[in-house]
Design a protein that fits this description.
Order of helices and strands: HHHHHHEHEHEHEEE
Strand content: 5-15%
Shape: globular
Number of strands: 6
Amino acid sequence: MQAYLIKTLFRCVALLPLSALRRMGDGIGNLLWRRSGREARVTLENLELCFPAMDPQQRELLAAASLRHTAQTALEMIKIWMQPNERSAPLLLGVENEQLIEESLRSPKGLLLLLPHLGNWEMVGLWCARYGQFATLYQPPKQAALEPLIWNARQRLGNKLYPTDTRGVRAVLKELKKGGRSAVLPDQEPEPEGGVFAPFYGVPAL
């Protein structure tokens, strides 16, 4: 029942134009900020760690803007998941330095794209599909009802999905050694046994 309700809600969201989704994202982000819940606290704490010298008021403005853009991205992703690829493709307005990808594909070595969680990374997956199959790491959502939906949306592009653990990393490395292609979101938090702590903005991060 939960999966059915979520899918119905997502279908409704996907029918809305991007302009409406972005206005909704603004409203949701502002609500999250005013509620001062976990999302607002974590965002502010991360900014304090990364930019300790920043004026506190400026940091709060940046945190509020981050929540608005995060909410916008979430709604945009739903639209990409739920509508056919041919309707999403025209939303990609341009690609910078695409020749670097094309040059890499002519090499016998593997191609590794590092794509941090900035903007709607689902569009990058859609764009990558034009160059053939990519091996990607996949972190299951906390809501189990969402997993089949997201999995199907990403696999319909022909990409291989591997879990974000030691087994998945090994699989991606194997693909690269064979001259394959991989796209990785490097800011995903791994399981402790699958990662190491390293300084990030001077703060140890897994």
